[in-house]
User: Fold Lipopolysaccharide export system permease protein from Sphingomonas leidyi.
Amino acid sequence: MTWANFFPSRTMSLYMARMFLTRTFAILGALVLILQSLDLLTESGAILAYAGNGDAEIWRYVSLRVPQIASTFLPYSVLLGSILTLSQLNQNSEVIAMKASGLSAHQVLAPLLLTGIAVAAISFTFNDRIVSRATATLEQWKKVSYAPLPIDRGDRANVWVKGDNNLIQVQQVRGRGDAAQLYGVTVYERQNRSLVSILTAPHAVRAGDGWRVDNAERFIVATGQKAKVGSIVIGRNVRPDQFTLAHVDADSMAFGALYQAIGDLKVAGRQTEALEGALWHKLAGPLSAILMPLLGAVSAFGIARSGKLFVRAVIGMALGFLYFVADNFALAMGNLGAYPPFLAAWAPFLLFLMIGEAVLLRTEE
Assistant:
C-alpha cells in the first residue's frame, strides 16, 4: 500500500483537514479573547499605576500576553476541534460511508493526524520564535512594575551575586563567558555583615579573576560622602556563569539557547535536571497536536443513532484532559528529581499514544 492509498480521497482529506483547522483555531480564538479580557481586568490596574502609562502600554501588554495564552491553550483547542470534527462526521454518516468504502479507522483518521503534524510544527516554531521572546520581555517588564525600560530580549536583568562578603547587583548582563558585559553595576561593600559603602559603575568587563569597572563612584555610609574611584577591579573569584546563568527561565528561552545554557551549567557543575525536562518538553508539548485526534477518535466510531454519540464525545474529552493532568504531573515530578528528564517529558505522550491506539482498536472491533 502506498502512502497515497493510505488516505481517503484527496477531496475528502482536504475537507476533513479544513473542518479540523477551522474548528481548532475558532476555539483557540475564542479562548484567547475571553482569557485575555479576564487577564486585563487583573493587570490593567498595575500597568496604569505607573505615571505616564496609558493605552499604548495596555496594548503592549496584550501583544506580549496573547502569545503565552495561545501557546498554553492550543493543545486544548486541538482536542476540542478533533472531537467536534469527528462527531460531526459521525453524525452525518460520513464515517460510515468511508468505512463502507473499505477504509480502516486509521485511514479515516489519517488526514487529521497529518494535519496535527503540521499544527505541531507551527506550534513549535511559534513557541520558539515568538512565545519565548514575549515571555522574556514581559518578565523583565514586570520586574520594574511596568515602568519604561529599554529591554534587550534574551539578556539577563536585575541579577544579584554574592562575592566574598559583598553583594553585587547588575541591572543587565549581555553576552556569555569571558565576553560577558555588565551594565548598571552596584556593589554593596560590607564588613561583618554591616554595610560600609556602596560602589556604583555604569559598566564592567572581565579582567583576570575579577571584573574591571570604569568611572566608578563610592558612597561612604559612615560619612555620607561620595568619592570618585575611577577604574577598579571588583568581584574577584566571581565566575561569569554566576551572572549569565544566575537565573535560567526555560519558558523565556528558545530551544537552542536553552540547550546551550544547559551545557554551560553542566560545565559549571550545577544541577540541570529540571531544565533538561523543560528542554525535552519543548518538543513533546507541541507533538500533543498529533495525539489529540487519536484520543478524540472514540467519538467518530459507532452508530450515531444509538444515542451514545454525546457519551463518546465526553469520553474523548476525558482522555484528552487526563493526558494534560498526567503531563503536568510528570513535569512536576521531574522538577523534584523523582523522574529522569527524558521520562518526565515523554512518558505521558507515549503512554497516551498506546491508550489511544488501544481504544481505537477496541472501538473498531
Remarks:
- Residues 156-244 form one domain.
- The chain has a mean pLDDT of 86.
